[in-house]
Design goal:
Distance between the termini: 77 Å
Bound molecules: beta-D-glucopyranuronic acid
Largest sheet: 5 strands, mixed
Helix content: 40-55%
Shape: globular
CATH superfamily of the largest domain: Bacterial extracellular solute-binding protein, family 7
CATH class of the largest domain: Alpha Beta
Structural class: alpha/beta
CATH architecture of the largest domain: 3-Layer(aba) Sandwich
CATH topology of the largest domain: D-Maltodextrin-Binding Protein, domain 2
Number of strands: 11
Amino acid sequence: MIKKFSATLLGSVTGCLLLAGTAVAEDWRAWNIHNEGHPNTAAMDRFSELVTEATGGEVNVQVFHGGVLGSQPDALEQVRLGAIEIGNFNLGPIGPIVKEANLVSLPFIFKSVPHMFRVLEGEAGDVIAKAMADADILPLAWVDAGARSFYSQKPINSPEDVEGLKIRVMNNDLYTSMISAMGGNPSPMAFAEVQQALKTGVVDGAENNFPSFKNVGHFEVTTHYSLSEHLIIPECICVNTSKFNALSEELQAAVRGAAEEAAVYQRELWAVQSEQARKDVEAAGITVNEIADKGPFQAAMVKVYDDYLGANPDMAALVKMAQETE
Ligand code: BDP
């Protein structure tokens, strides 16, 4: 009797769970490398709120800021494995995993940030997004990361000024080639280590956009920021492909919508806060110099393109698409 009763009870409990179906909420973790005060931190918090709202609490995203879930290359692996579901990733460190994403890591490939977004919103962007999704890092939306420029203890006005300098770069062979082509010594290193490396002279310089230069205190241990703007690398809100595809179509649309809205918000914040970051570091004593002629930097990159396209001839079509985008 008791046995029968528990079997019935068990049956109805299972039935309830089955009926409820997706009502068992998805609790996802998101990786963010930035701290409070960086536009992406606010945008990722907004994304989290929007996801809960849009899915009626069926999907919830808890964002871990400050890179506490690991370095960027590690976090990318975690997302691919599904151990972390979401991340705000820079496409630079994605290049070694997804070849197509390397388009954006070719120095001076884009004329401006709006040009970069036009390329991403066109055919080239579709190719990159599909290749990323196939590698289990599905981009839900693209976000702005401005342009990256050099900073060190002296102004940099020409590739000769980079000669002999040890420059920290993100993890991607294209960046080591880029620095070598200017006669510098590239030093790939995790973002979290850069401030100390600059401070102790382990590296002579690094390169980044204004918000990151400010947010993690690199400006406190350098003196000059030189507007080379050699790389315009977009970022994404990216999700593990299988986890995303396992959601119902309605939930997929809701999560994607939340990412798109958060990306619009991020771009607005970026515009205002990157200007502000520049003013703040200048007020703190950083000398910012324009580079009158970027031609010599671009000329030095011809070898980088030749070597890269020589080794990766299948990337020529994407490069052409970007160059032909108005
Ligand atoms: C910042 C990016 C971040 C990178 C960092 C870096 O937002 O994703 O990890 O640069 O240089 O601008 O490593």
